[in-house]
Amino acid sequence: MRKITGRIFAALMFTVIPVSAKTWYVSSSSTSPMNETGSFDAPFRRLDGSLRNFSSAEGDTVLLKSGDKWYNQTIQLSSSGSKLKPLVISSYGSGAQPQIIGLQASEDAALIFIGNSHGTTIIDNIKFSDNPKMGIRLTFLKEPDNGNIVIRNCTFENMESGIGYGYGYYTPKDSSHVKNVQVDHCLFSSLIKGGLLFYPGKTGSTGISVENLNISNSTFDRCGLYSIQLNAVKYGSATNNTITQSGDTSQIGSASIYLASVSDYILDGNRIHNSIREDKNPDGCGIDFETNNRRIIAQNNIINNGHGPAIFMYWSSDAIDDSVHENSDITITRNVFYNNNQNPSIGKSEYNAEILIAGNHQGAQITNNSAYLRYDYSSSKISERLYCLMQNGSCASVPLATMTISGNRQGVLYFDYAAMDISFEPNFYASTYLDLYNAFGYNTNALNSHWNSFGVREGRIASPIFDAEFYYIAHPDLQINIGKNYFALRNHFLNSGINETPGRISSEIFDVSYYKNTYPDIATMSNTDACKHFLTLGILEGRTGSRFFSVKRYVEKYADLQSAFGVDYRSALSHYYRNGKSEGRLAPP
Fold first, then answer.
1. N or C terminus: which one in the chain shows less Cβ crowding within 10 Å?
2. d(CA 332, CA 263)
3. DSSP at 539
């Protein structure tokens, strides 16, 4: 390809004129001998060629050919369609997403600039990569109350950030206001600063720069300091997103989702994994309520394997007016936290909590969450706590009068594979049999002693992996050779049955062959390790272990279970054995 020198500011300039809507085609690989007219048979080749003087009508569509690539070219949108006739930039043909690649350094470089948009603009199925700054930048330089932007099925890869408004490249004028932005089914990967950064700086007297921002069904993987950073946002939601590895070990303040001066917002059903932090600070959290947030609901999120806490409530000078504000009316409910605090704060072991709270946050409600705390086999102790109210360098034992902390479930998570007996999981055993919980709590040694002395012979179920009665009924050869001796059946399973090829089905909940065949990431594990994976992670993730029962389906099928457990599949599984099975509740996959 011919080397491009200098700064090429390739642009699609759209201005609304009263003409009929058209579809325009662009293909960098076109070999058509015809003059470029933008038709299917004679597509434009360059984004900075004939399209430079292109004018759009409502309903116009620009289609980039799948599999094609454009280098050092930028699309600028200064007008838009309408709700009924949106302006669309998308793809045509089969193959990989059309890719816009930016290789030249530029302080404010973006691959698509979206300016004033009073109607509706849709960007669909485009890949943005290798740009020194960002993929899509919202500018809105001229007029207030712009917006109505839909960005869906797009990929942002190997850049500083994916989608941004403000964040150092442009501080919006006081009159600027963005409404109705939707990001759906997008992939953000290998980004230096973050995936989606709405950080507009000073926002005038209203204190709002972005109104109704919705982020859904998107994946954020290795997205720098923040996967999602929101400042001065009112209304909207982040739902059903998957976030893997946010943060940086060299900088403080890292978080997967960062909120400051955000109000009336919902975080629902997000899966947040592996937030990273620098050793000496309390960040590296799943969700950071940094300062001045109002009326936020965080529910049904699963946050795990972070360096720091799952939730951090703080106050700082990062509010829109540089003052310090604590949060208020924050609701944290029906979330599941496990295996966080993997990089404990040096010298502050008491801060190793799933929920870390600094300050007096009026009206905070922390209710009905489930935390599975990591068990340290070397010390025979739980190595973290459910929550910590930071006061005078330590953790207060009771919540402040202005907060409500109640109804939270606390269990134990055992991660030492070598020490695990797959027929006995203490947390499950205690949660399933309330007489044992009332007698022993989660005392591992006491529960283990009961299991081996009494529980096995009584036919109790101490792990979703193994049910002696089911094992007996499912295998006629064992009925003949062993009989209804539960202790001997347990020993057969551990010493022989699980290691057979394929492994024997061992409970209504779990069939090792089914599990390995269903999930490719489990397929190459040994049968025993697959069992241990299901116990430690699979259940928490809502994975299905057999053709007879799906715990995720169990919760989704019954409204009362949704209300009681949310995404706490471990507690829901214990409920099935404790109550649901006898009530005739069924939940096949």
1. N
2. 14
3. T
Residue 109 and residue 93: Cα distance in Å, rounded? 28
Task: Give the Cα separation of 64 and 69 in Å (integer).
Answer: 9
Structure tokens at 462: 């101490």
Helices first, then strands: H and E counts in the chain: 12, 36
Q: Count CB atoms within 10 A of the CB of residue 513.
A: 16
Phi-psi region of 65 (alpha: psi -120 to 50; beta: other; left: phi over 0): beta
Where helices occur in 496-558 by DSSP H, the ranges are: 512-518, 527-533, 551-557
Is the model's pLDDT at 4 over the cut of 50?
Answer: no
Top-ranked range on mean pLDDT: pick from 53-57, 152-156, 324-328: 152-156
Determine the Cα–Cα distance for residues 518 and 55; give it in Å rounded to an integer: 51
Backbone angles phi, psi at 13, to 5 degrees: -100, 120
Overall average pLDDT of the 505-516 stretch: 96
First to last CA, the chain: 52
**Domains defined along the chain, listed by start:** 1-188+209-218 (no CATH), 224-413 (2.160.20), 419-580 (no CATH)
Rg from Cα positions in the chain: 28
Residue type at position 178: V
How wide is the angle at C-alpha 137 spanned by C-alphas 11 and 54, nearest 5°?
20
3-state helix, strand, coil in the chain (%, to 5): 20, 35, 50
pLDDT mean over 271-276: 91
Cis peptide before 18 (omega within 30 of 0): no
Tell me, what's the pLDDT at 9?
32
Global pTM? 0.86
Q: Report which of 353, 365, 283 is spatially closest to residue 327, judged by C-alpha positions.
A: 365
Calpha distance 382→412 (Å, rounded): 8
218-245: pLDDT as tens digits: 999 999 889 999 988 999 999 999 999 8
Cis peptide before 502 (omega within 30 of 0): yes
Contact, 424 vs 491, CB < 8 A? no
Q: How far apart, in whole angstroms, are the C-alpha atoms of residue 433 and residue 463?
A: 12
- Count CB-CB contacts under 10 A for residue 348: 16
pLDDT tens digit sequence for 13-31? 333 334 567 888 999 999 8
Residue 51 DSSP label: G
Which tokens in the block code for residue 413? 């998570």
Secondary structure letter of residue 503 according to DSSP: P
Q: Pick from 482, 418, 417, 421: which is nearest to 455 by CA?
A: 421
pLDDT exceeds cutoff 80 at 425: yes
Quickly count: other Cβ atoms within 10 Å of residue 426's Cβ. 25
CA-based torsion, 32, 35, 39, 44: positive or negative:
positive
- Taking CA atoms, 173 is separated from 117, 166, 168, in Å, by 16, 10, 13
Measure the CA–CA gap between 61 and 562, rounded to whole angstroms: 42
pLDDT band of residue 489 (cuts 50, 70, 90) is very high
